[in-house]
TrEMBL record:
The chain crosses the membrane at residues 6-22, 29-51, 57-79, 86-115, 121-146. The lineage of its organism: Eukaryota, Metazoa, Spiralia, Lophotrochozoa, Mollusca. This is ABC transmembrane type-1 domain-containing protein. Keywords: Membrane, Transmembrane, Transmembrane helix.
Length: 155
């Protein structure tokens, strides 16, 4: 949120300075707003890509760990079948099923979290863009109106 406030303040200051210096040149203000919006969108896309990459890495690590556990369990099962009773084999199979179920649940939770994060990021981007555009338009209108009022008062 602090970044959002800083971005809005910077945009407002830049818009006011440009409007005052260039005698309310609306085209320049629109170009500045477009550039700010493009920069914000690029930053959001970069953040989303980083989040997706982190999630993919976590999922890959979980799957690799699951495969290692399954291989170890199979080795133990083979050894147990050759050496010990059938009850141990049943217990190992139950452990394998529980581990697989836990991994599936963890993967489902990770996918849901990623979807929620992406939705939140998209909503925040839309809100930031709307706030920036509204603030710039209001500042431009205030400066233009004030400039015209002063112009009328002079003459």
């Amino acid at each position: 949120m602090l970044v959002l406030v800083v971005v809005v303040v910077v945009v407002v200051v830049v818009a006011v300075v440009v409007v005052v210096v260039l005698k309310c040149c609306i085209v320049v203000v629109v170009v500045i707003v477009v550039v700010v919006v493009v920069v914000v969108v690029v930053v959001v896309v970069i953040v989303v890509v980083v989040v997706v990459v982190v999630v993919v890495v976590v999922v890959v690590v979980v799957v690799v760990v699951e495969v290692i556990v399954v291989v170890l369990v199979v080795v133990v099962v083979v050894i147990e079948v050759l050496v010990v009773k059938i009850v141990v084999v049943v217990l190992v199979v139950v452990v394998v099923v529980v581990v697989v179920a836990v991994v599936v649940v963890v993967l489902a939770v990770i996918i849901v979290v990623v979807i929620v994060v992406l939705v939140v990021v998209i909503v925040v981007v839309v809100v930031v863009v709307v706030v920036v555009v509204v603030v710039v338009v209001v500042v431009v209108l205030i400066v233009v109106y004030a400039d015209r009022t002063l112009y009328v008062i002079k003459f």
